[in-house]
Design a protein that fits this description.
The structure is a homodimer. By secondary structure, chain A is of the alpha/beta class. Chain A is 40% helix and 15% strand. In chain A, the strands form five sheets. Chain A has a seven-stranded mixed beta sheet with strand order 12-13-14-15-16-17-19, sandwiched between helices. In chain A, strand 15, helix 10 and strand 16 form a beta-alpha-beta unit. In chain A, helix 3 packs antiparallel against helix 19, helix 6 runs antiparallel to helix 19 and helix 10 packs parallel to helix 12. Chain A is globular.
C-alpha cells in the first residue's frame, strides 16, 4: 500500500459548490410533513479527489458540500419542515468523521480550508435551529467518531443508540495527533457543558464513551435501546417540531440553478462579477444593486430572483469558489454599482417583513454570507466610487473590509458614468440584523469601546455621506481625491501582496473580531488557530507524524518537546 | 556576516529566573517616594545566549526576567510606591522590541516560551495597576517598536515624545512576516479601542505613527514636546500616584533569595520539591503545607517566610524553571503533604486581611502563579493521597489539573504515614479571589453551564470530602482504591507521554478555559495560537522566510497561497 504521502492529492480540478438533491451521491433528503430526514449514506467511490475511499460514512469536502446544500434548501424550499433528523443509512456506523487518508494526503491549506467550510456548515445547522424554526436532531444509530460526533454536536438534541457497541468519540488526539477540527472541543465544553476533566479523558480515549455514561457526562442527551429507537426518534422529532415557529401552509421558494460563467480571468453571475488578476494576486469584485423597485409586498417577492436573495447566493458561491480554488489571489477589492435608494428600498421590505418566514430566511442567509466573508483569509478592501451603492446591506461589504477608500469628489476624467460624488448611506440593516459571529454588528465592532463615535454615526442614518464626512465619522479609512485615488489603491493592494500571507491571515483574524467572544468566534479564532498550528507541525504532518502514519501499521515518532 | 540560521542558538545552559536589583544588567530601578522609575538601558553584550547583540534597547529573555523581578519587588518591597514610570535610558529609542537576531536563531519552542513569559510579565504590569495601586506610566521618550510598543501598551497611560521622529509601531508583519507576539494586536483593539481599519493600517506600516496622529488614533494618550517632557511626565506620575490605594508609612517585605538546590533529577526548595523522571517524561511535584499555625495577625506575617508567600514564590520559580529548561518532561503530577487545617488557617488570615496591602499582594501573587500554571503547556495531574492537604488555596492545584485522582480508602501497605483516608476541603479561597484569566474561579469554570453542580459543591464548604463524595460532586475525576491506584496513575501518565505533545498542548489550551473570554485569554488563546502557527510556517522560519532573512539584505520568498 502506498504511503499517504506519496498520494498527495493534487486538487487540480476546480471545486464546484453548486449542487442539487437530484445529484447527491452521499445524502438522502426526505421531507415528509413537518419532519425531514437527512440520511448520510456516503458513496465510498464518490471522493472529490482520487486516492481514497470514503469508508464507514467518512466524508470529504464533496460530502459536506451536499450537506450544506441540503441545509439551505430545507430552509428555503421547505417552509413546512419544522425539525430535521440527521441519521445514517449504514448499519452500526453513524459517521466516522473526515476521511483520514484524504487528510493525510492533503496539503496544509486544503485541510484548513476544508475545516473552515465544515465549521460553517455546522454553524449553519445551529443557525437553522435557532433562527429558522428547524431544529436538528442527531439520531446517532451507530458509532459517531471525530467529525461524525462533531456533526451530532451541532444538533440541538443528540440520541445515541444504546446497544453496548455504539459510542461517541473524539479520537483525533490519540489516533492522529491532531485536534477535532470542526468545533468539537468548544462545543463539548461551552455548549454541552461537559466537565473539563471528563472532556479531557473522553478526548484521549479513542474508543469513546457510550450508553448511560455518555448521558451522565452530557456527551449525548439520551441513550435509547434499539427496540425503542424508531419510535423514540419519531417522538423527539415531533416534540422539536411542535416548538417551531415555522408557518402553516406556506409554499417554498425553489433555489433555482445559479447562472455562472467562469473563464481563466473572470467569474460572472447575474449581479456579481469577479475579475481575477493573477499577476497582482488580486480579485476585483463588483456587485450590482437592484435594477428595479422592490416588489410591493413580501408575498410578491417569494422567488430566487428577488434581488437580496439572488445577490446573496452569488456572493456566497463566489466566496467559496475563490477561497477554495484561488488561494494565491490574496486581496479582494469590492466595488458596487447601482442605486443606493433601491438597495435601501429592498432592505426596507425585508426588515419590515421580518416576521415573514421568507424575509427572515433571506436576512439570516445574508448574515451568514457576510460572516463567511469575515472568516475568509483574504485581505478585503472596499473601493467606494461614484455610481456605487454602498448603502444599508451592501455597506456591510465596506464595513467587513480591512480598509476602505472613498473618493472625495468626482473623477475628473469624464468617462465616469456620473458626476455625483460617491456617497455611502447607513441604513437600518447596519444597526442590528446582520451580526458578526461575535454577536455584535460590524458597526458596533468597529466602534468597540467608543460609544460616542458609535452614537455620532448612528445619528446620521439614511444620510448620503460624502467621503470627508464618512472619513471624519470613522466609517471609511481614507478619502483620497481623484489625483491620488488610483495610486493609493494600487499601493495598498501591491503592498498587501508583498507581505507574508500567513501573517496577514493572523492579523486579520485578530483585528476583525474586537470585543466579546462567542462559541462561534472561539471555534474560528482559538480552536482553529491551534488546529492550524498542530496540522502544520511535523508531529502531525511530517513523514513520521501521526496523521501520515495512521493506518500504515507504524507508530508515529514524536519530537517530545512541549511547546 | 553569518546567516541567522547558522547561529541557531543552543540554549544549553539552564536559564535561571532568580535575580535581584543589584545584579540587573539592563534595568535601573529607582524608588523615590511615591513614584518609582524603571529605566531600560539594555547592555548590548548582555544577551542570555551568545550570537546576538542587544542593540537599540532590544530585549531577550534575560532582559524580561529582570523586568519581572522589578515589578514583583515594587509590589512587595515598596509599599510606598504608588505609580511607576517606565522609560528608556538611551537617546532617541525607547525600546526596539524583542531582538530579531535572537528570534531568528531560536528554535520554535524557545520563541513560543519566550513570548509566553513576556506576556505574563505584561499582564503582571496590568495586574499591579489594577490591583496593587501601582499604576504604570509609559514615558516613551523615543521610538517604541514591536515589543517596545507592546510594553507601553501594558501601561495605564502612554506618553510619546512629540519630536517629529519618535513614533510607536508594530513592524512585525511588514518586516518579519510574523505577528506582534506579546498581546499587541489584542491590546490595540480591545484595550485602546483603536478602530480596526486604522489598526490594520498601523500594523502594516513599519515606520509607525507618531505625534498628534498617534493620539488621534488612540495609539497613545498624549504626545508631549521635549521642552515640556520631564515636567509633564512628573505631573502625570503624580496624578496616577494620587489615585492609589497604597498605604502610608508601611514597611516593605524583602523578597529574600530563594533557597534552591538543583541536581539532574531533582529541584528542591523549602516547601516544594520536584523529582524529574526523564525516562517517563514526568515530573513529580510535592508541595508541603505549613508546619505551624499562622501568625496571630497579618502584622506579624510580614516576611518572605510567611508560608503562603514562600510557597508561592517557590512554585512560581519551579514552573518557570521546568517550562524553560525541561521541555521534554510533558506531565507534571502534583501531590501535597501536610495539614489541611493549617492551610485553611493561613488562607483565613489572608482573606480576613484582604484590605491589608501585604495580604492583598500575597493573594494576587498566588492568583498570578496559578494562572501561570493554567497556561503552561504540560499535562497536569493531581494525585490526592492520605496525608495530603488539598484544601483551600492548595486545592486550586487539583482544580487546575487536567485530571485528578483521589484515593478511596487508605493504602493497605502500611508504610504510609497515616491511616486516615485522603480528603479534600473546599474553602473560601476557592470561591472568589483566585480567578483564572477568564475572570472565573477554577470552580466556576469547572461547573460552567451546570449551576446545580456548582451549588451542590459550594454547600459543602469546609467539609472534609473523601474520594467517593468528591467524585460524586465532580470535584475529582477518578476515585480508585488501593488495588488500582498505582496502575491507574501509571497508565494515565504513560498514555499521556505516548500522545502527540502538540495535540495535547492544543487540547489543554482549549479545555482549561471554558466559558467567557477576556483580553488575557484572547492573548493566550487566540493571538498566541495564531502566532505559534505563523512562527512555524516556512514563510517566517524557513530558510527563505522573512524572520530568517531579516537584516541579510535579501528579501523573503513567500509561498503566496493564503491559508
Amino acid at each position: 500500500m502506498p504511503q499517504a504521502a506519496e498520494t498527495e492529492a493534487a486538487h487540480t480540478e476546480r471545486v464546484e459548490f453548486r449542487v442539487s438533491p437530484d445529484r447527491y451521491r452521499h445524502w438522502k433528503l426526505s421531507a415528509d410533513g413537518p419532519v425531514a430526514t437527512l440520511t448520510m449514506d456516503v458513496d465510498e467511490q464518490g471522493g472529490l479527489v482520487p486516492g481514497y475511499e470514503l469508508k464507514l460514512n467518512s466524508y470529504d469536502l464533496g460530502v459536506d458540500i451536499e450537506l450544506y446544500d441540503a441545509v439551505q434548501r430545507l430552509r428555503f424550499e421547505h417552509p413546512e419542515v419544522r425539525s430535521v433528523v440527521i441519521t445514517s443509512g449504514k448499519p452500526k456506523i453513524f459517521c466516522a468523521g473526515a476521511n483520514i487518508r484524504m487528510l493525510a494526503a492533503s496539503p496544509h491549506g486544503w485541510k484548513v480550508n476544508f475545516c473552515k467550510f465544515t465549521n460553517e456548515t455546522r454553524n449553519g445547522i445551529e443557525d437553522a435551529t435557532a433562527n429558522s424554526g428547524q431544529a436538528y436532531l442527531a439520531a446517532v444509530n451507530g458509532t459517531a467518531s471525530g467529525g461524525g460526533y462533531e456533526l451530532a454536536l451541532a444538533c440541538e438534541h443528540i440520541m445515541l443508540v444504546d446497544d453496548r457497541s455504539s459510542a461517541v468519540s473524539l479520537p483525533e488526539l490519540p489516533l492522529l495527533g491532531v485536534l477535532p477540527g470542526t468545533g468539537g472541543l468548544t462545543r463539548v465544553s461551552d455548549k454541552r457543558h461537559v466537565r473539563r476533566d471528563l472532556a479531557d479523558y473522553f478526548s484521549t480515549k479513542s474508543e469513546g464513551v457510550g450508553g448511560k455514561k455518555a448521558v451522565q457526562w452530557r456527551l449525548v442527551d439520551e441513550a435509547v435501546p434499539r427496540p425503542r429507537w424508531d419510535d423514540t426518534v419519531a417522538e423527539r422529532a415531533a416534540e422539536l417540531a411542535s416548538r417551531s415557529s415555522r408557518p402553516q401552509d406556506a409554499a417554498g421558494v425553489v433555489l433555482t440553478p445559479l447562472t455562472k460563467t467562469a473563464t481563466d480571468d473572470a467569474i460572472r453571475y447575474d449581479h456579481v462579477e469577479a475579475r481575477l488578476d493573477r499577476d497582482a494576486g488580486r480579485v476585483d469584485i463588483s456587485v450590482k444593486g437592484p435594477q428595479n423597485d422592490p416588489p410591493a409586498s413580501i408575498d410578491e417577492a417569494r422567488s430566487a430572483d428577488f434581488w437580496p436573495l439572488a445577490v446573496t447566493r452569488e456572493l456566497d458561491d463566489l466566496i467559496l469558489d475563490l477561497r477554495t480554488n484561488e488561494p494565491e489571489l490574496g486581496t479582494w477589492v469590492f466595488r458596487t454599482e447601482g442605486s443606493p435608494a433601491l438597495v435601501l428600498a429592498h432592505d426596507e421590505l425585508l426588515l419590515s417583513s421580518k416576521e415573514d418566514w421568507f424575509a427572515n430566511e433571506v436576512l439570516h442567509y445574508l448574515k451568514r454570507t457576510l460572516r463567511r466573508l469575515d472568516v475568509t483569509s483574504r485581505s478585503l478592501i472596499a473601493a467606494i466610487e461614484p455610481g456605487s451603492c454602498f448603502a444599508g446591506s451592501l455597506l456591510e461589504l465596506a464595513l467587513a473590509a480591512d480598509r476602505s477608500f472613498q473618493l472625495a469628489g468626482v473623477f475628473e476624467a469624464a468617462d465616469s458614468n456620473t458626476d455625483e460624488p460617491a456617497t455611502i448611506i447607513l441604513g437600518e440593516a447596519n444597526l442590528g440584523p446582520l451580526t458578526m459571529s461575535n454577536g455584535l454588528t460590524r458597526l458596533q465592532t468597529r466602534f468597540w469601546g467608543d460609544e460616542a463615535g458609535y452614537e455620532a454615526v448612528a445619528k446620521r442614518k439614511n444620510e448620503a455621506l460624502e467621503a470627508e464626512d464618512a472619513a471624519d465619522l470613522g466609517l471609511v479609512t481614507f478619502a483620497p481625491d481623484d489625483i491620488d485615488w488610483d495610486e493609493e489603491i494600487r499601493i495598498a493592494t501591491e503592498e498587501r501582496s508583498s507581505f507574508s500571507p500567513d501573517a496577514l491571515t493572523g492579523l486579520e483574524a485578530n483585528y476583525r473580531f474586537a470585543g466579546p467572544e462567542t462559541m462561534e468566534t472561539k471555534i474560528f479564532g482559538r480552536l482553529t488557530a491551534w488546529q492550524n498550528w498542530i496540522f502544520n507541525r511535523p508531529n502531525a504532518s511530517g513523514p513520521d507524524g501521526a496523521l501520515r502514519r495512521f493506518g500504515t501499521g507504524q507508530r508515529a515518532v514524536f519530537d517530545r518537546k512541549r511547546v
